[in-house]
């Protein structure tokens, strides 16, 4: 399933702009053309640095320890850039994410 097919960026941006701003980033003044550019949104569980020898030893049933603690918020990434933290939720028969922390979105960092 492609996340871009199910995620309505236009609607999400409009909702964020309509909410009262607390420690608020500046209002997003995006060209309507830019709002339609697809991005890849991922939720990263964690990572593990391993040697090539350890990689070659992986087989069915292998368990690798990640750099996140159980229950710790996961990283939300857009095109590989971390933009916040989230927890996994179930929406119907699919997984979803609940945003628990959101960094100021800067188009310059997302483009790199």
CATH homologous superfamily annotation of one domain: SpoA-like
Pattern of helices and strands: HHHEHEEEH
What does the largest sheet look like?
4 strands, antiparallel
CATH class of one domain: Mainly Beta
Radius of gyration equals 17 Å
Mean pLDDT: 79
List the strand order in the largest sheet: 1-2-3-4
CATH architectural category of one domain: Roll
How many helix segments? 5
| Computed structural class | alpha+beta
**What is the third-level CATH name, the topology of one domain?**
Surface presentation of antigens (SPOA)
Low-confidence stretches: 21-25
- Helicity range of the residues? 25-40%
**What's the count of strands?**
4
First-last Cα distance: 25 Å
**Silhouette:** elongated
What fraction of residues sit in β-strands? 25-35%
Main location: membrane
Membrane topology: Peripheral membrane protein
GO molecular function, one term: cytoskeletal motor activity
Keywords: Cell membrane, Cell projection, Chemotaxis, Cilium, Flagellar rotation, Flagellum, Membrane
């Amino acid at each position: 399933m492609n996340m871009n097919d199910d995620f309505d960026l236009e609607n999400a941006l409009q909702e964020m702009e309509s909410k009262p701003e607390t420690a608020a980033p500046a209002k997003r003044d995006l060209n309507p053309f830019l709002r339609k550019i697809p991005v890849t949104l991922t939720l990263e569980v964690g990572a593990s640095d391993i040697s090539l020898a350890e990689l070659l030893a992986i087989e069915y049933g292998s368990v690798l320890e990640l750099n996140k603690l159980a229950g710790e918020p996961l990283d939300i990434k857009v095109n590989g850039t971390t933009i916040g933290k989230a927890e996994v939720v179930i929406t119907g028969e699919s997984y979803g994410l609940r945003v628990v922390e959101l960094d100021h979105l800067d188009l310059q960092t997302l483009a790199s």
